[in-house]
Design brief:
This protein is mostly beta strands. It is 2% helix and 51% strand. It is built from one helix and 35 strands. β8 and β9 form a beta hairpin.
């Protein structure tokens, strides 16, 4: 076996129920049977169903009794955006050797390593640590904590053992006790590239970029990582697999180019909010619950910049659960009306799938309904996205 490929042997686990959403707006729910590079196979009420991998936007995993173990103490971030929680981390001049109860043993090339944190979160200096990691480094940084302040020295990080970190400072090799180090930040002249097809979220908070996702039995999922290793993760430790990178833009991540609001009765709450209802509740329309989307009150106009980069605008539309308001909605692109209609309360979410190809501006107008009042007029655009 190639030393860069290390398979983690995982105990038998329950077959997960998987919910799949696709680029076309279709949704599938069933027990996972297998995954190949081209197809996800499900058992849906005793019937085999195949979903083309190229059409999958996101998947969510559910296993009876599924629980997340306690986060392991060490935290490793990679240049491709991956984040791993670890039991141990050792290093030679070329690789970081790590172990985890969830992802097993791995050897990660140093040019993929962004930072290694020894002190477990949460702490009072977490924000300072994030700022240091985001800083453009000139050399490796050895970070220490003094009460509620982080300080650092710059040098070259060498071998990391169970008890010490070897650092080259001004030409002199200095061993530093690990229990005195808060964390390490690695300078990368040529950082490793992501080259990933999926973003895998685990129950313990790990985020893994993956070049390839496969499963032969459904009880475990094999991930090929951009940094080299292949790992097998028990299905009951996976929360979601996201294939959306490069395929779409979520509307909650697109800053409105323009927003106008005309209040009628209430003017002390937001007129526009992302990923939550106006008052902070989870987005819900009828029986559908959404982790992503926007909530817009009447009378509000929101305009987004498209620049001709997208082909479709998709969303589930309706009045936020528990509110009795109604609105009239008009959606236009470059002055051309694509949708217009009334949205009533206590109804199931309505599917929107609009052609925006070659358009430069998307405009959503949420107007008053039967009564000229903004009370209860909480329009939800759930899972709203722009597809390329």
């Amino acid at each position: 076996m190639n030393l860069s490929i290390l398979l983690v042997v995982v105990a038998a686990a329950a077959v997960p129920r998987v919910e799949i959403s696709t680029l076309s707006g279709d949704e599938f729910s069933g027990n996972l049977t297998s995954i190949t590079a081209d197809t996800w196979k499900l058992d849906v009420d005793g019937k085999p169903v195949e979903v083309a991998g190229a059409q999958i936007l996101a998947t969510r995993f559910f296993v009876a009794g599924q629980t997340a173990g306690e986060k392991e103490s060490l935290e490793l971030s990679l240049t491709d955006g991956s984040l791993l929680h670890l039991k141990t981390a050792l290093a030679d001049p070329k690789e970081i050797h790590v172990t985890s109860d969830v992802t097993g043993d791995m050897k990660i090339p140093r040019n993929f390593v962004q930072s290694l944190r020894f002190e477990k979160a949460p702490t009072s200096v977490d924000d300072s640590w994030k700022e240091l990691v985001a800083r453009t480094a000139r050399q490796d940084m050895i970070v220490v904590r003094k009460n509620d302040v982080l300080d650092f020295v710059e040098g070259v990080i060498g071998e990391i053992t169970e008890t010490q970190v070897n650092v080259l400072l001004d030409g002199e090799n200095i061993p530093v006790n690990r229990d005195r180090v808060f964390g390490l930040i690695f300078y990368q002249r040529e950082p490793g590239k992501a080259g990933s097809a999926a973003r895998v979220q685990l129950l313990n908070g790990d985020l893994l970029q993956a070049r390839k996702v496969t499963s032969s039995a459904g009880t475990s999922v094999e991930l090929a990582l951009p940094c080299g290793p292949e790992v097998s993760v028990a299905a009951d430790q996976i929360k979601a697999v996201d294939f959306s990178s490069g395929r779409l833009a979520w509307i909650d991540e697109v800053a409105p180019r323009e927003k106008k609001h005309e209040f009628e009765v209430i003017d002390v709450v937001p007129d526009y909010r992302v990923n939550r209802d106006i008052y902070g509740s989870r987005l819900k329309v009828g029986k559908r619950v959404f982790d992503r989307g926007v909530c817009i009150r009447s009378k509000t106009l929101v305009r987004y910049r498209l620049d001709g980069d997208f082909n479709r605008f998709q969303a589930w539309m309706g009045i936020q659960h528990g509110y009795a308001g109604d609105v009239n909605v008009t959606i236009s692109c470059d002055g051309k009306e694509l949708f217009s209609g009334a949205v009533e309360p206590n109804a199931e979410a309505q599917r929107l799938d609009l052609d925006v190809s070659g358009k430069y501006s998307l405009e959503v107008l949420v107007d008053f309904g039967k009564v000229k009042s903004d009370i209860g007029d909480h329009l939800v655009l759930g899972d709203a996205r722009l597809l390329k």
